[in-house]
C-alpha cells in the first residue's frame, strides 16, 4: 500500500519539477527577449539624440522614446524578478523530488529490515519448536 502511495507522490513531484522547469524556461526566454529589446532601445536613443542635436526631431519625440526606454527597463526588472522566483520554485521542486526519492529509499530499507526481523522471528520460533519436539 505504501509503495503505491510513494509512487503516486513521486509522480506528482516529477510533474511539479517538470512544470517548474517549463515556467523557468519561459521566464528566461522573456528576460532574453526584453534584454534584446533594451539593447535596441539603446541604439535608437543614440540615434534620436544625434538627430535631436541636429534639429531633425523635437524634444517631445526624444522624451517619448525615453518614456518607452523607462518602461522597457521596468519590464526587464519585472521579468528578471519573475525569473528569480521561477528559479526558486524550480529549486524547491527539485528538492521535494529528491526528498521523496530519499524517503522512498528509506522506506524500502525499513521494509527490508522489518522483513528480516520477521523472518528471524519465524526462524527462532521454528528453532525453539524443533528443540521442544526433540525433548519430548
Strand content: under 5%
In round numbers, the mean pLDDT is 87
Structural class of the helix and strand makeup? Answer: mainly alpha
Largest sheet: none
Computed Rg? 33 Å
Kindly state the number of beta strands.
Answer: 0
List SSEs in N-to-C order. Answer: HH
Number of helices: 2
| Helix content percent band | over 70%
Compute the separation of the termini in Å: 43 Å
What is the 3D form?
rod-shaped
How many structural domains can be distinguished in the coordinates?
1
Q: Poorly predicted ranges (pLDDT <50, ≥5 residues)?
A: none
List keywords for this structure.
single chain; 136 residues; mainly alpha
Question: What's the arrangement of secondary structure elements?
Answer:
Layout: H1 2-54, H2 59-135
Would you kindly provide a written description of the structure presented here, covering whatever features stand out?
This protein is an all-alpha fold. The protein has one domain. Helix 1 runs antiparallel to helix 2.
In short:
With 136 residues, this protein is an all-alpha fold. Helices cover 96% and strands 0% of the residues.
